């Protein structure tokens, strides 16, 4: 079965007949109501944060208990299994801070070529540190939340709805264990609880006008969608890879101590048609390096912090994680099966991102999908 004992992602759900949101894990086509099944009030809250704050030893112990109950003591847990089609899924975490990186060499090179054709595609710092910026935690939304086309300045004296609304297919990392102000993060697996898929919606026209020289702002902050399920790191043990070779050798604080490259393949669908399969395994900077960089100045981590990889793009044309790359800034429209063509998103378009990774014993780990439909500008 997919979504079996090897995966068990965490989410927040409520029964459609009315009840306050609570924490569960997905098992097959059911949600396990953890507050009931484990008699633990930490799961009777509307986010994963209280549970995540317990730390990595508690995450491992809880996962083992759930696996054991589902695998050998099914009768005891039966009453706490709720069919997926009877629940509403919510944003799984209370997002503390939100950071977005820029870790794909291919994505960064493609954007450099398009936006800065007369310069080297990569800025001189790019191979020395994982470039990132702080986003807007309060506009991170759950999969399925409608996305309203943003309006803004698109040039000198020009205001209106974005005409270049885009996607960015990314992997997000959810922080469970905090650090104190002034302290650096320790081991990646002691701080990071799990992963989620992210669509960092981007208004390219607003972005292009506003972001020189201080970086992305309103072109990115109107909405960022995440999947309703957070896959624990333990479920990705078979997907771990050393990470792509790096040249030059990064500074010591960025040195990889454990393999945290991940063999994940994303899939981006536009109105039900697959338009891209971005390979996460090809990312240049790995998530342990992002964590080390994000805290090297003493900036603290908080439970619920979300940091995203940046757009996942591979070297192939059909491996690009944004429409600006897939259509080369609108100059090479995508042809859709219904005969229409797309450069950027139109009102009513639905974008869905899924991902899969190898699991134990030949199984496949399928991350929870992230989806959103574009609504007309207000
Ligand atoms: O290189 C640029 O001018 C612009 C880059 C981005 O928009 C990328 C971004 O937001 C980070 C990412 O998702 O990779
Ligand atoms: Ca992004
Ligand atoms: Mg965004």
UniProtKB/TrEMBL annotation:
Limits of the Fumarylacetoacetase-like C-terminal domain: 99-360
Keyword S-adenosyl-L-methionine: no
EC number from the UniProt entry: 3.7.1.2
Positions contributing to Ca(2+) binding: 100, 168, 170, 200
InterPro entries assigned to the protein according to its UniProt record, in alphabetical order: Fumarylacetoacetase, Fumarylacetoacetase-like_C, Fumarylacetoacetase_C_sf, Fumarylacetoacetase_N, Fumarylacetoacetase_N_sf
Highest taxon listed in the record's lineage: Bacteria
Positions contributing to substrate binding: 102, 116, 207, 211, 311
GO BP term, pick one: homogentisate catabolic process
Family annotation (Pfam families): FAA_hydrolase, FAA_hydrolase_N
Cofactor(s) for this UniProt protein: Mg(2+); Ca(2+)
GO molecular function annotations of the record: fumarylacetoacetase activity; metal ion binding
Ranges where the Fumarylacetoacetase N-terminal domain occurs: 7-92
UniProt key word Cytoplasm: no
Active site as annotated: 107
Pathway terms, separated by semicolons: Amino-acid degradation; L-phenylalanine degradation; acetoacetate and fumarate from L-phenylalanine: step 6/6
Keywords from the named record: Calcium, Hydrolase, Magnesium, Metal-binding, Phenylalanine catabolism, Tyrosine catabolism
SUPFAM superfamilies with a match to the protein in the record: FAH, Fumarylacetoacetate hydrolase, FAH, N-terminal domain
Residues holding Mg(2+): 200, 220, 224
Full protein name: fumarylacetoacetase
Taxonomy of the source species: Bacteria, Bacillati, Actinomycetota, Actinomycetes, Streptosporangiales
């Amino acid at each position: 079965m997919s979504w079996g004992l090897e995966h068990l992602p965490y989410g927040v759900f409520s029964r459609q007949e009315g009840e306050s949101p609570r924490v569960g894990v997905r098992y097959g086509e059911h949600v396990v109501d953890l507050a009931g099944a484990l008699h633990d009030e930490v799961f009777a809250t509307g986010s994963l944060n209280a549970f995540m704050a317990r730390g990595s030893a508690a995450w491992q112990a809880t996962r083992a208990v759930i696996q054991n109950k589902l695998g050998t003591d099914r009768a005891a847990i039966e009453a706490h299994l709720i069919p997926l089609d009877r629940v509403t899924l919510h944003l799984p975490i209370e997002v503390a801070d939100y950071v977005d990186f820029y870790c794909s060499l291919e994505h960064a090179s493609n954007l450099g070529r398009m936006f800065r054709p007369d310069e080297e595609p990569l800025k001189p710092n790019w191979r020395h540190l994982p470039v990132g910026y702080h986003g807007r935690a309060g506009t991170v939304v759950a999969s399925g939340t409608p996305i309203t086309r943003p309006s803004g300045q698109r040039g000198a004296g020009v205001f209106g709805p974005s005409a270049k609304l885009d996607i960015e297919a990314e992997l997000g990392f959810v922080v469970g264990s905090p650090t104190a102000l002034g302290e650096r993060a320790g081991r990646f697996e002691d701080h990071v609880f799990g992963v989620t898929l992210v669509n960092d919606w981007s208004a390219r026209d607003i972005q292009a006008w506003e972001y020189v020289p201080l970086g992305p702002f309103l072109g990115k902050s109107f909405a960022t969608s995440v999947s309703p399920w957070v896959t624990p790191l333990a479920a990705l043990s078979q997907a771990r890879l050393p990470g792509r070779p790096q040249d030059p050798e990064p500074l010591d604080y960025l040195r990889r101590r454990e393999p945290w490259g991940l063999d994940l393949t994303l899939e981006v669908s536009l109105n039900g048609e697959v338009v891209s399969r971005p390979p996460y395994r090809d990312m240049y900077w790995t998530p342990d390096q992002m964590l080390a960089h994000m805290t090297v100045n003493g900036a603290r981590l908080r439970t619920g912090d979300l940091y995203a990889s940046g757009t996942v793009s591979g070297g192939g044309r059909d491996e690009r994680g944004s429409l600006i790359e897939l259509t080369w800034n609108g100059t090479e429209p995508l042809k859709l099966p219904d005969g229409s063509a797309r450069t950027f998103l139109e009102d009513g378009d639905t974008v869905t991102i899924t991902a899969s990774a190898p699991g134990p014993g030949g199984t496949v780990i399928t991350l929870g999908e992230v989806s959103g439909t574009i609504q007309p500008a207000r």
